[in-house]
Amino acid sequence: MAIRIAAISPRCITGDIRHNTEIILTAANEAARVCASVLILPKDAVTGADCGFLTINRDFIRNRKNAEDAIAERLKELNISVRYSTSELSYAGKFMTLRRRLLNESEQNESAFIYVNAAPTNTVSRGVYGGEVFACQGGKILAECGMLSWDNNVAIFDIEGDLYEVVNTSGGFDIEPALRRNPYFPKDKKDYPAFCDEVTKLQYNALASRLGFVKAHTAVINVSGGLDSAHALLITCLAADSIGMKRSEISALILPGFGTSARTLNNARRLCKILGVAVDEIDIRDGCTTVFNNIKHDKTVDDLTFENTQARYRTMLALNIANKRGGFMVGTGNMSEAALGFTTFGGDALSMYNPNCGLTKTAMREIVQYLIKSETVGNGVSVILEDILNTPISPELRFPRLDCGDISQVTEDIVGPYELNDFFLYHHLLGYGMDEIEIFAKTVFVADYLEEVIQHWLASFTRRFYAASFKRIMMPEGPAVLYPPLTDKFIPGDIKL
After folding, report:
1. Which residues contact 320 (CB under 8 A, 6 or more apart)?
2. What is the reported pLDDT for 58?
3. Residues 154 and 241 in one domain
4. Which CATH number characterizes residue 365's domain?
């Protein structure tokens, strides 16, 4: 005997119980219309996903109970039973992995599996809920709705027999060591394009959701001509396109300082022009000099105070301009910098939302290369991005070299190669010890680095990671798009190992 099932991921909103109740009742009526006997919804559909401490608030609990009673009464009238699946963040590659696993298991066991995730209309505070709907039986797909649909994802299908499993967790990712140069990416390079596409969509959908939520008149972003800000600007443009915001309503700030090179300044100007965003160019040297005079700092000494003053001054300008224009400051920093503490507290680490916070530096390079090859950004933009990729990574906060006026600070000379640091980070977040990580790294990078070099940078990574805990505590919200994420790994700021 066949059972007709309606699996629906409705456009629920975190915290809005009244709206969610209405949309669930609409889903129930749709299930009745197609003669379904079972309705499957995401977990926490009534309250929306990730309501935080509100789940222990008495008013919230009472409102939820009243809504659940109203829904149960209507389902009883319609003679429909309800079951709940899951509400979990959609990391890049996660659904692809789950889909493959469920198909294999259903083929082996002749069983049926149904998976329904919360919709992307829920909170994007920590990441994106993809709204995926998937059902299979005996190795065959019965229904599938991909992630990031802004409409209700609805799947109506029949299951043979009365035995089926509603999946309440994706099962996560493989936690075995990833013995490859870029562990955050798939094993098979054929999967890279689809993976990069998922990352990009998760990022710009998250930012679009937040821009819409705050009703921002403009998105304000600092553009340096480096990789991080170039990528964040591209994501901001895609987010604006998706919600009907004109690119001319994006406020790009080009803020050259004491260490800005001609190459990065030129690339920042060219990129903003070709993308069609509004530009304000403000030389920050006079403003920073005023700060130096106020705090009695010698402006010819390019020490840490000299560097951080510039980073904080840029952030102050961006936040104040966002205030003045009814806008929203978009962050640009990446997960690798946050892990290493290579950020300025109260400076570039601050923003109102950071779409790049869940992306490592090595992943960002791969994704920008993908955007170039896929022609997503256009030929003119690709030429500029190629040059940005070939520019040494630098915060450009110190005076240029006297002999050629070029960049004097090279980040990887200070913190170590990013491909090593990101490899260390991946395995550290999975819980591996430093001795194990050292063995993994020596295996993967045997042809690239001497053993003592790997040991040196691993010790540096460990020291920096824990010393920077206090900085990460005040990180802005943003989407975790890669697994394992850093954003949910709390460590006290005064931990001592």
Report:
1. none
2. 94
3. no
4. 3.40.50.620
| pLDDT tens digits, 472-495 | 998 999 999 999 999 888 889 898
pLDDT, tens only, 422-461: 999 999 999 999 999 999 999 999 999 999 999 999 999 9
pLDDT of residue 349: 93
Domain check: are 161 and 201 in the same one?
no
**Cβ neighbourhood burial of 187 (10 Å; 0-12, 13-18, 19+):** exposed
Q: Are residues 208 and 312 in the same domain?
A: yes
Count the helices and strands in the chain (H runs, E runs): 16, 12
* 202 and 240 Cβ atoms separated by less than 8 Å: no
In angstroms, rounded to a whole number, what is the distance separating the alpha carbons of residues 234 and 487?
22
Q: Which residues of the chain have pLDDT under 70?
A: 170-174, 402-405
Using DSSP, state whether 230 is helix, strand or coil. Answer: helix
- Is 127 a member of any domain? yes
Do residues 22 and 150 both lie within one domain? yes
In-domain check, residue 138: yes
> Is this prediction's pTM over 0.90?
yes
Tell me the C-alpha distance between 113 and 153, whole Å.
17
User: Do 464 and 487 touch, CB atoms closer than 8 A?
Assistant: no
Q: Which domain holds residue 21?
A: 2-166
- Domain assignment of residue 175, yes or no: no
pLDDT of residue 398: 93
If asked whether residues 138 and 237 sit together in one domain, one would say no
Assigned domain for 171 exists: no
DSSP states along 131-154: --EEEEETTEEEEEE-S--SS-EE
160 and 204 in a single domain? The answer is no
Q: In what order do the strands lie in the sheet with 153-160?
A: 81-84, 38-41, 2-9, 153-160
Same domain for 246 and 156, yes or no, is no
Q: Are 438 and 455 in contact (CB under 8 A)?
A: yes
Tell me, what amino acid is at 384?
A: I
> What's residue 407's pLDDT?
78
Taking CA atoms, 462 is separated from 5, 296, 457, 491, in Å, by 51, 35, 9, 13
Distance CA 5, CA 11 (A): 19
Q: Are strands 2-9 and 38-41 parallel, antiparallel or unpaired?
A: parallel
- What six digits make up the tokens of 189? 């390079």
Tell me: do 98 and 18 sit in the same domain: yes
Burial category of 105 from C-beta neighbours within 10 Å (exposed 0-12, middle 13-18, buried 19 and up): middle
CA angle at 243 for the pair 238 and 245, rounded to the nearest 5°: 80
pLDDT of residue 495: 85
- How far, CA to CA in Å, does 242 sit from each of 205, 234, 245, 428? 8, 12, 8, 36
